[in-house]
Amino acid sequence: MMKLFRWISCTMVLLLLPWGYDAAAQTGGDRPLRIAVAGTSHGHVPWILNRKNKADAVLVGVFEPDKALAGARIRNYQLDGKLFYTDLGKMLDKVKPEAVVAFGSVYDHAMVVEACAPRGIHVMVEKPLATTVAQAKRMEELAKKHKIHLLTNFETSWYPSNAKAYQLVNDSNYVGKVRKVVIHDGHQGPREIGVGREFFDFLTDPVLNGGGALMDFGCYGANLMTWLMKGQQPIAVTAVARQFKPEIYPKVDDDATIIVDYPGAQCVIQASWNWPFNRKDMEVYGETGYVFAVDNYHMRMRTGTDRSEQVRVITPKEIPVYEDPFAYLADVVRGRITVPQNGLYSLENNVMVVRILEAAKESVKTGKTIRFTQE
Asked: What CATH number has the domain bearing residue 266?
């Protein structure tokens, strides 16, 4: 009887393990994931520098070549100066992190992967993955060759409302076949909301950021639509971009509209540094209904048989979603979860995002619709 009980117990444990569970990744057990930071110029870097007293991860090193900026980070976040390095390779070899989170310019993401991948160090970058398709493809090649996780972090990946919208669209068929998706992302502008000098400098640089609002906020829509379409390749991209505030943003666009066409659906991405307030929302229209993710927790929805629109509050208790990207990173590296194919953080999704953005930039430049070729 005891042997039978043990067999049943072991079988139940195996059945409950996430699909793609990697026992080898469990060598770290429950000890904190050793995380290092590469670059601190990004305005989102407080997410990791302020993340203290957590059992899932520990900060072991920070690469920041700008000594003045490094000093400011040490003071502002009360960090040990011994954590900071001005040479990325030396930091990696000295502190031996298991994962690196990149908080420098988008252009520098490729450099981080070039350094980490051959060392077997996993990487998570801030959105978008890269500034060009050439960079994205090189990063993908390195990640696959050296068998590391290469994740891209978007704030909208944490939204229960987006997870619920995906479920309603793809699982319960609430809206029927998707026909049109409209996604709005942006704010009043980097200068207007008071971002730091170091963040402003790369956000408004056409090389370091790859563009302006088109890159900074267009990537959200491309990421979400690629997810909703389960990785399907678009057939064409058409885009226009404007400079409404050339006195502030002389080198890059500050407003963009991107139309992404699929055989049976269309996505309109409106990315701007000219909204009157911060917004990240998504409207999904199908053959039989619609769902709107108004913000991270609030939704509006209606089907053709409803007399009126439903307004709902969606929380992680209703639909599981990671609201902390570093907890997600730790669970991925430890093998406790598997990144879904074409999921929001996934490499294949985010290579497609860069392809869409590059096509949008080409469309803006030429005034033509850019057709996709099969890969």
From this structure: 3.30.360.10
